[in-house]
Design a protein that fits this description.
The chain is of the alpha+beta class. It has twelve helices and 28 strands.
Length: 557
């Protein structure tokens, strides 16, 4: 697990101390959020944030008051209005599941607004919240190294927000957003989600940057970053997306180095995932006063200068340890795999981890992919064997994030082997096309591969995503005599405690100077004998020699 991943950043907090945001933020009773107008005013000298957020809602007939709950920073609400009428019927309380110390560290509360029945029944209505934070600053503890991970900070030289809830926020809510970032940092540029509509200087020394997006809030809030940026811009391979890399003074060489690699990554993901969902992709350098940041929000990627941005990229080094390369690939793929489609987090991170390795395969061929996945499997067994991480189902809400990154990647690797490259890539593209703009479930993901392959896959996803464990195999083989043609018999014993079906399991038959590969199906039984027809008796059999499957394996003859 790389802690730079966008959703990883959430779960650095969530699985350790902070609850995972829901993927369905409102119940069917309504009202529903349909859009946001967010105005953020940053005073760099005072390190304060002033907010003015209007939440546009679609009403629904009701005879009772309705309550809407939002994630919200630990700021001071100065006024709250419902359809322009000031109200006092709201509560700002500690966020559920956080201790008092954690709530203070994460700068997070829950805002609950009671909407009178008469207003909640209107076709549309608005909730407007005016608030202030006198010290906009929050970090999370990275459980991998115990160091701080930045959530949002302001200082005199610049400011940024990652997934801090600096305005009343619901995941996957609304269909559009207008974001106004207002700053008094001289000669600064503000970057946020969507497309820059205008930049207006103001007489009081504050400049306003207006971004607009035709998409809802997504998994993370609309972010912003402020700095004295130089921008390098190119058009992507699709002929319409603007790629913009924003670097701080003195770091333009790093932006120049990144651009061709970003273009290459982008081209691969368009081929794999389908059309890019936003008008631009902005990659922004940040320089927090404490902690590290590496995340993807809607159409924006933020990378810490000291860790990710100001790092030499070596595309010839295809090993997983090349974090500067794979973090960049990882954050770009989240534009599809979190924001084009709102996958459950445990699923999104497994996809991102495997797609990182697919990019490695693009650069270095199958040998690179093989090395990646062997390292991934080894990491899994280290986690559950030596690090004390409890093996749980990938979709278990209490599973360790590191585990679902790794096991989720291995599950996709096995699915690819079973379905073949064409059906696997077709299923991936279908998922990110058919479910564009939607928050999905594991069943949706499965259905995309079922349609692409024409096969039922409920057993595969139940086996690898919905229950813990892995196969523990003991295999032995021997020549079979007395038959019309040469055969070998392979006996497989599964030691449990859980039995697995492994379809497409590879067996390599080795002769003096040649080898032939066959695939067999291992059934979910304690003992099984498989007969394999051969052209001549082999000298040796190798089982899953390229490491396609997550398994323990003992062999003999």
């Amino acid at each position: 697990m790389r802690v730079s991943s966008c959703i990883a950043a959430i779960l650095l907090c969530s699985n350790d101390v902070r609850p995972v945001p829901p993927t369905a933020p409102q119940d069917d009773a309504g009202p529903h959020v349909i859009g946001h107008i967010v105005k953020i005013r940053i005073d760099h000298k005072k390190r304060t944030l002033e907010g003015d957020c209007t939440i546009l809602c679609q009403g629904k007939a009701t005879k009772v008051d309705r309550k809407l709950s939002f994630q919200f920073l630990d700021g001071r609400i100065e006024k709250l209005l419902v359809d322009d009428e000031a109200v006092t019927n709201y509560a700002c309380r500690p966020y559920p599941g956080l201790t008092e110390a954690q709530a203070k560290q994460y700068d997070l509360k829950e805002l609950e607004v009671t909407v009178p029945a008469g207003i909640a029944a209107r076709e549309t209505f608005s909730i407007r919240v005016l608030y202030r934070d006198d010290d906009f600053y929050a970090t999370a503890v990275n459980p991998e190294d115990g160091k701080p991970f930045s959530l949002g900070q302001i200082r005199e030289s610049d400011a940024f927000s990652s997934h801090i809830n600096y305005y009343p926020f619901l995941p996957h809510a609304g269909t559009n957003g207008d974001i106004f970032v207002i700053t008094n940092l001289p000669d600064s540029v503000a970057v946020s989600s969507g497309k820059l509509v205008s930049c207006d200087p103001a007489a009081d020394g504050f400049a306003t940057f207006h971004y607009r997006t035709e998409h809802g809030s997504g998994l993370l809030p609309f972010p912003f970053a402020i700095g004295k940026y130089d921008a390098m811009e190119e058009t992507a391979c699709d002929g319409k997306t603007r790629i913009r890399i924003c670097s701080l003074p003195g770091d333009a060489a790093f932006a120049k180095q990144k651009m061709p690699i970003v273009q290459d990554i982008f081209a691969m993901y368009v081929s794999l995932f389908g059309e890019y969902p936003f008008p631009e992709l902005a990659i922004v350098e940040t320089d927090p006063r404490e902690g590290n940041i590496g995340l993807a929000a809607q159409s924006v990627i933020m990378l810490s200068r000291k860790v990710w941005f100001a790092a030499t990229l070596d595309a010839k080094n295809t090993g997983l340890s090349n974090d500067a390369l794979y973090v960049l690939a990882d954050e770009i793929n989240h534009q599809w795999n979190a924001y084009k489609v709102g996958s459950p987090n445990y699923l999104a991170e497994g996809i991102s981890r495997y797609v990182d390795s697919l990019y490695g395969e693009r650069l270095g061929g199958f040998a690179t992919l093989k090395a990646h996945m062997q390292e991934t499997a080894a990491s899994f067994f280290h986690l559950v064997g030596k690090s004390g991480v409890e093996d749980k189902a990938i979709c278990d809400p209490t599973v360790a994030p590191t585990l679902y990154f790794i096991k989720g990647a291995m599950a996709l690797h096995m699915l690819r082997k079973m379905l073949g490259d064409e059906s696997f890539k077709s299923g991936m593209r279908r998922y990110f096309t058919d479910f564009a703009g939607k928050a999905t479930t594991l069943a949706d993901f499965r259905s995309a591969f079922e349609r692409s392959s024409g096969r039922r896959l409920d057993w595969f996803f139940a086996q690898w995503y919905e229950r813990p464990g892995w196969p523990r195999l003991s295999v032995a083989w021997e020549p079979v005599s007395g038959t019309d043609r040469p055969e070998v018999g392979v006996t497989i014993v599964q030691k449990g405690p859980t039995l697995f079906r492994l379809e497409g399991f590879p067996v390599r038959l080795k002769h003096d100077r040649t080898a032939e590969d066959v695939d067999v199906t291992i059934e979910a039984v304690e003992k099984q004998t498989i007969r394999i027809g051969v052209s001549r008796q082999p000298q040796k059999l190798e089982f899953d020699p390229d490491g396609w499957f997550l398994r323990n394996l003992e062999t003999g003859k």
